[in-house]
Specification:
- The protein is α+β, with helices and mostly antiparallel strands.
- A two-stranded antiparallel sheet has the order 1-2.
- The protein is globular.
- The two termini are 25 Å apart.
Length: 75
């Protein structure tokens, strides 16, 4: 059993704000426009896709282009 570290509330607020900013960016629109899920590699419509952090914010992950991928809502 390994304890899961939880990020500080300030870190979570800051990274969620940055994620919202990235979601409005042309970079994100380009990523989601491809229609593919990073995890299952299937094609989906835009409304079936979402933003996913590879390392979750709650575990100290950041809202950066290297840590955010397009994911279908099922994955």
């Amino acid at each position: 059993y390994q304890a899961i570290e939880t990020a500080e509330p300030e870190h979570i607020r800051r990274e969620r704000r940055k994620a919202r900013e990235l979601r409005a960016s042309s970079w994100w629109k380009q990523q989601i426009g491809k229609g593919g899920c990073y995890h299952c590699e299937q094609k989906f419509s835009r409304d079936e896709l979402t933003m996913d952090h590879l390392i979750p914010i709650s575990r100290g992950g950041r809202s950066t282009k290297k840590n955010i991928v397009v994911s279908c809502k099922q994955c």
